[in-house]
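INFO batch 0412 | record 1 of 1 | parsing
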Amino acid sequence: MAEEKFTATAAAVLHEEADALCLLADSLDSSFDEAVDCLLNISGRIAVTGMGKSGHVARKVAATLSSTGSPAFFIHPAEASHGDLGMISNGDAVIAFSNSGETQELSDIILYTARHRMPLIAVTKRQDSLLGRNADYVLLLPDVKEACPIGCAPTTSTTMQLALGDAIALTLLKTRGFTPEDFREFHPGGKLGKKLQQVRDIMHVGDAMPLASVSSSMGDIICLISGKGFGAAGIVDEHNNLVGFISDGDLRRHMSSNLLEKSPEEIMSKNPFSLSPDCLAAKALALLNERKISSSFVLNNGKIVGFIHLHDLI
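INFO prediction complete | emitting tokens
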């Protein structure tokens, strides 16, 4: 019985916050477009600020902006009044989060942006608040009650702030044409970094590649395939262009008493599949699986630059 009561309370909180997000989405207007245009056209960075729970949201929004191609940083409003205003420079813009818009600790930042003519974007529930009146752009949050049963803890309001921050960051990302490759530049470590690795990051290069001349004997090619340990060899012409591919499977299909007397051209698969060095490793894995092959050479403008095996990708 107790579990049902707990679940009901949790579900009610989630429904209230979800409803608030729907209201927020429906309330977006030209103010949002103008604020995003402003952020797209600044020459500096985006300073994000807020006090208390709004400050925690501001920290996360600054991190999301920075990781998606819009350089940003968090500035604590109380510390700003004691020297950290120097973090904000000409060319920067400020996004300030305050549910009431009357957060006194923001007053010095508001004055500083006005004095130096820096764009100030307010995220608040009240247009007529201290923050709302002095901001260049006001993104109004729907005036809905907090999901907190006693109506005190910032819950629905901070959920809306966080979601609106994501909306700003991802609108900027899409408008700038930010790509998965760009994203990887800012996330080189951890699972995200590995997921976004490119073929160029893990391919075998130089002498590690299993390459043989089209004039090589089949005996030499079989030794090469065995020695390199990839189960395959690439066949190149006199200009070092890839003209064929011989796999273990090709050798088995042509197995006969006179195999060693055959030329590579009789055994190899012509016009072999290849990958680009810029291809994401995850996509390369899917392409190899799709074609039921275990390895591929990597070509850049028609020139061989690497070799990759299924095991490298896995």
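INFO post-check: The first strand starts at residue 46 and ends at 50.
INFO record closed
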